[in-house]
Amino acid sequence: MQRAIDPVDEILPAPRLITLGLQHVLVMYAGAVAVPLIIGRALKLPPEDVAFLISADLFACGLATLVQCIGFPGVGIRLPVMMGVTFASVGPMLAMATQPDIGLLGIYGSVIAAGVFGIVIAPFISRLLPLFPPVVTGTIIMIIGISLMRVGINWAGGGLPTLTRVVDGVPGAFPNPNYGQLPGLGIALFVLLVILALIKWGKGFLSNIAVLLGIVAGAALASAIGVMHFEKVLSAPWVGLVLPFHFGMPQFHLVPIATMCIVMIVVMIESLGMFLALGEMTGRHIDRKALSRGLRADGVGTLLGGIFNTFPYTSFSQNVGLVGVTGVRSRWVTAAGGVILLMLGLLPKMSALVEAVPLVVLGGAGLVMFGMVAATGARILTAVDFKGNRYNLFIVALSVGFGMIPLVAPNFFKALPHALHPLLESGILLAAIVSVALNAFFNGVGSAEKAEHDAADVAATAEHV
């Protein structure tokens, strides 16, 4: 009897593979290019250098995604993961950008060092698995979805309510005049309705690419009413090479390196939550060895980022929700997305075309996808014993409360030391710390074997949902 192929390892026909991969790229594109735009402008780089940063970022995104999805000995979790630049690094890098003795080359030095640091500590971070029983993982995954909803809502509104601009070397916030305008909200709603209609009435592959078709329909509508513009597409060159150390050899400074290593720890703990979420969605048992490979790939991706003129990389949570929406679990789909990102990095004109898609179009899709992540966390919590163990109620209640602080009160921790801000500005990390601490306090810490058994049980439950 022929052995059934695991859905995670299934290689789909090329047309479906490319289409589904493109869908993943469109979902994560806005987040991928945001960081090089912010850092490039903070450093007052000329437009052609900022454009190169974006191309380099897309190229390195593709490389890091392939490392994570395809996997190599000891590296890569081999799940449907898309890699992108982490926003946790933006604050520290902006501070480095304002110091003349550090600048861009000092940033790259700190990124390379953080990548090596991540590769070394990956096995130690993976040993935290016993601290993550279902009551903790369900809570964290739910907070990941809730946190992402803010991103989706702001996309639907037309970006952030306030925009960051650098004036005289100092970043400042200014109101976004396009935020919440009726045309943009109408486009986001149109995209949402198209996706819902395709999910309900579409069959087979048509339903799987509902998000992509919704984005294409939204882009067509945006173009028809004059919201989508193509000037950058026409002016962009067809081909551009991304070579290592384009801006010069990196420089290594102790304090920036230490800061970026702290950011790396934060990023890896968040990635641990993402991997567990994908394990639930794909029905794949995530043990300590798998976590080590996935976290090590985060370090390798960050190291590649520093070499190829870009920044620290992490598993993009935006794309976790897309796996839940489509039900397509194949890691080769995101590997195809990685190849597309490589091509976009080398073909600036194609990159400019994707970049031209307005955020409001992505907003309609984001509301569906990010809500699915939160729903996955809620589904895991349904398997938790709340009736026989009332402590679990307090664990979830307080963890969700702490996780909401950065969302509803961004200035809540402003009086605390600035060095702690990378830890306190992530609702996901706060929820993780509080849920782990409360679970250890109320329920104790189980063995690694029990943690892996719990993860396998939850994954088996997800397999049959």
TrEMBL record:
<dbReference type="InterPro" id="IPR017588">
    <property type="entry name" value="UacT-like"/>
</dbReference>
<feature type="transmembrane region" description="Helical">
    <location>
        <begin position="79"/>
        <end position="96"/>
    </location>
</feature>
<feature type="transmembrane region" description="Helical">
    <location>
        <begin position="211"/>
        <end position="230"/>
    </location>
</feature>
<feature type="transmembrane region" description="Helical">
    <location>
        <begin position="332"/>
        <end position="350"/>
    </location>
</feature>
<feature type="transmembrane region" description="Helical">
    <location>
        <begin position="102"/>
        <end position="124"/>
    </location>
</feature>
<dbReference type="Pfam" id="PF00860">
    <property type="entry name" value="Xan_ur_permease"/>
</dbReference>
<feature type="transmembrane region" description="Helical">
    <location>
        <begin position="250"/>
        <end position="278"/>
    </location>
</feature>
<keyword id="KW-1133">Transmembrane helix</keyword>
<feature type="transmembrane region" description="Helical">
    <location>
        <begin position="131"/>
        <end position="153"/>
    </location>
</feature>
<feature type="transmembrane region" description="Helical">
    <location>
        <begin position="51"/>
        <end position="72"/>
    </location>
</feature>
<dbReference type="GO" id="GO:0042907">
    <property type="term" value="F:xanthine transmembrane transporter activity"/>
</dbReference>
<protein>
    <submittedName>
        <fullName>Purine permease</fullName>
    </submittedName>
</protein>
<feature type="transmembrane region" description="Helical">
    <location>
        <begin position="179"/>
        <end position="199"/>
    </location>
</feature>
<comment type="similarity">
    <text>Belongs to the nucleobase:cation symporter-2 (NCS2) (TC 2.A.40) family.</text>
</comment>
<feature type="transmembrane region" description="Helical">
    <location>
        <begin position="393"/>
        <end position="413"/>
    </location>
</feature>
<keyword id="KW-0472">Membrane</keyword>
<feature type="transmembrane region" description="Helical">
    <location>
        <begin position="20"/>
        <end position="39"/>
    </location>
</feature>
<keyword id="KW-1003">Cell membrane</keyword>
<dbReference type="GO" id="GO:0005886">
    <property type="term" value="C:plasma membrane"/>
</dbReference>
<keyword id="KW-0813">Transport</keyword>
<feature type="transmembrane region" description="Helical">
    <location>
        <begin position="356"/>
        <end position="381"/>
    </location>
</feature>
<feature type="transmembrane region" description="Helical">
    <location>
        <begin position="419"/>
        <end position="442"/>
    </location>
</feature>
<dbReference type="InterPro" id="IPR006042">
    <property type="entry name" value="Xan_ur_permease"/>
</dbReference>
<keyword id="KW-0812">Transmembrane</keyword>
<dbReference type="InterPro" id="IPR006043">
    <property type="entry name" value="NCS2"/>
</dbReference>
